[in-house]
Specification:
CATH class: Alpha Beta
Structural class: alpha+beta
Strand content: 15-25%
Number of strands: 5
Largest sheet: 5 strands, mixed
Distance between the termini: 62 Å
CATH topology: Aminopeptidase
CATH superfamily: Gcn5-related N-acetyltransferase (GNAT)
Strand order of the largest sheet: 1-2-3-4-5
Mean pLDDT: 92
Number of domains: 1
CATH architecture: 3-Layer(aba) Sandwich
Helix content: 25-40%
Number of helices: 5
Shape: globular
Length: 167
């Protein structure tokens, strides 16, 4: 075994590893009971010409060590494209070895070249101070004037279903 961590863009055949790492992240964040992604949904939505997201993988000799799941973002305030990191997970034995920084740097570089991304944004759980400190050390700053909000489940379906009747 080489023991050296390699970072690369994920392929469709990595869907099982991606799902496993996302499940670990969900468990660590207390979202394990509501985690709904499957290998099939990751493969369907994360690969191909209309992929909803991309994933950067870190691995040692084929064993998963971390991931960054990300997608295009656009800021009308900045007037520039960016990249949004939805999920960042590092295997516990790799934490503190700068793997998270390497993954974020690789995502930033990839997005800058692929679609001229000029910034990176993400969200951090309020009850995850270690992650907040990690991001702060890299120079991330919290937005004081906005808070993430979501419309999901029946409320999303109701709004989407009302589009025709609102015209």
């Amino acid at each position: 075994m080489s023991g050296r961590v390699q970072i690369r863009v994920a392929r469709a055949d990595d869907a099982g590893h991606i799902t496993w790492m996302l499940k670990q992240l969900a468990i660590e964040l207390g979202d394990g009971t509501v985690f709904a992604s499957t290998e099939s949904t990751i493969r369907r939505h994360g690969f191909g010409p209309d992929a909803s997201f991309s994933t950067m993988l870190a691995e040692t000799d084929g064993a998963p060590q971390g991931l960054a799941l990300y997608f295009r973002h656009f800021s009308t305030t900045r007037g520039l494209p960016g990249v949004y990191v939805q999920d960042l997970w590092i295997a516990p034995e790799q934490r503190g070895a700068r793997l998270g920084t390497r993954l974020l740097a690789t995502v930033a570089e990839n997005a800058a070249h692929a679609w001229e991304a000029a910034y990176l944004t993400l969200s951090v759980y309020h009850d995850n101070p270690a992650a907040a400190q990690f991001y702060s050390r890299l120079g991330f700053a919290a937005h004081q004037n906005d808070a993430p909000m979501s419309l999901t489940g029946p409320a999303f379906k109701d709004l989407a279903g009302s589009a025709g009747s609102l015209a």
